[in-house]
Design goal:
Number of domains: 2
Strand content: 15-25%
Radius of gyration: 20 Å
CATH architecture of the largest domain: 3-Layer(aba) Sandwich
Structural class: alpha/beta
Number of strands: 13
CATH superfamily of the largest domain: Isopropylmalate Dehydrogenase
Largest sheet: 11 strands, mixed
CATH class of the largest domain: Alpha Beta
Shape: globular
Number of helices: 11
């Protein structure tokens, strides 16, 4: 049975990153997968001035698909603009687990680091519950539910167990945000009772930000877990440990659907310059193939990309090289 994948081209450098990624996907020729390219994002919205950053025909296709690969998109900051493409899709398809692997893509094991950042993706500060009380005052509600904390904690412990890792690190501010983070920590501790071989090592968010910078090796082969905003920030900081956020791929996973995307933004200032690191988009696509059951093609893309980065000859500027996006893509395809 053919599986249907929606490819969102995105904004800024998104279309060229997607173009390079499609070359790589076509080179492995995954069987029984149909790719359909669509528009969504700020550039579409600025042209059409619709009520959403996602066109109605794109949303219809998404509803009929098995997975989505999203290029980076821009979320307008002007008052009254629609919510982001990613938040819209996370909430629509209940993609509660935003997962960002942090892994050194190099043969140099002396400074290698690997950790998994897991972020609750449907509520918290990104719930979309905000109010302008008067001209001087606005509030945003940090919605935390026990059911969402339970399932994201379960996902984190399962992820650690699958990898053979022994620690889950919940990140919170329960000494200040007592009502919400008390629920979060309580559910993490309840789920931990089901995994006697996995320990819990919790950190306050401010201390975590400092420790991750000062002692990153402390978190090697551990699962970092937090609520929506906290892990959005911590995973971005963690990306610096592996040289560039251009290497950080991600998935948004629910019980029945998943969306894959690079963790970085659209870098509009580099649009059309053939300069951006394609790794995060390419590896997001590779992970998507694995999710859809094509382990062979997904693994091949991971191996080829890691080989190109390890050799360091045909890599982009952020990885210490001078290759163009298209040149790095061609090198990955060569090893495929």
């Amino acid at each position: 049975m053919t599986k249907k994948v929606i490819i969102i081209r995105g904004d800024g450098t998104g279309p060229e990153l997607i173009s390079c990624t499609m070359q790589i996907l076509n080179s492995v020729n995954p069987s029984n997968i149909e790719f359909i390219e669509c528009d969504a994002g700020a550039e579409y919205w600025e042209r059409e001035q619709g009520q959403s950053l996602i066109p109605p025909d794109t949303m219809s296709l998404l509803e009929e698909s098995d997975a989505c690969l999203k290029g980076p998109t821009v979320t307008p900051t002007i008052p009254g603009a629609p919510r982001s493409v990613a938040v819209t899709l996370r909430q629509k398809f209940d993609l509660y687990a935003n997962v960002r692997p942090i892994k050194s893509l190099s043969n140099n094991n002396s400074d290698s680091i690997e950790m998994l950042c897991i972020r609750e993706g449907t509520e918290g500060m990104y719930s979309g519950l905000g109010f302008q009380i008067d001209k001087d005052t606005a509030i945003t509600i940090r919605k935390i539910t026990r059911s969402s904390c339970t399932r994201i904690a379960k996902f984190a412990f399962e992820s650690a167990s699958e990898r053979g890792w022994k620690t889950v690190v919940p990140i919170h501010k329960a000494n200040i945000l007592r009502e919400t983070d008390d629920i979060f920590l309580d559910e993490v501790n309840k789920i931990s009772d089901e995994y006697s071989d996995i320990s819990v090592e919790d950190y306050f968010i401010d201390n975590m930000a400092q420790q991750l910078y000062k002692n990153p090796e402390r978190f090697h082969k551990k699962v970092l877990l937090s609520t929506n905003l906290f892990m959005d920030i911590i995973s971005e900081e963690a990306s610096a440990l592996i040289g560039s956020i251009g290497n950080v791929y991600s998935a948004n996973i629910g019980d029945n659907y998943a969306m894959f995307e690079p963790a970085h933004g659209s870098s509009p200032k580099y649009k059309g310059q053939d300069k951006i690191n394609p790794t995060a988009t390419v590896l997001s696509a590779a992970w998507m193939l694995q999710y859809l059951g094509d382990e062979k093609s997904g693994n091949a893309i991971f191996e080829a990309t890691e080989r190109v980065i390890s050799e360091g000859k045909s890599v982009t500027y952020d990885l210490g090289g001078s290759a163009k996006t298209s040149e790095m893509t061609a090198e990955i395809i060569k090893y495929l």
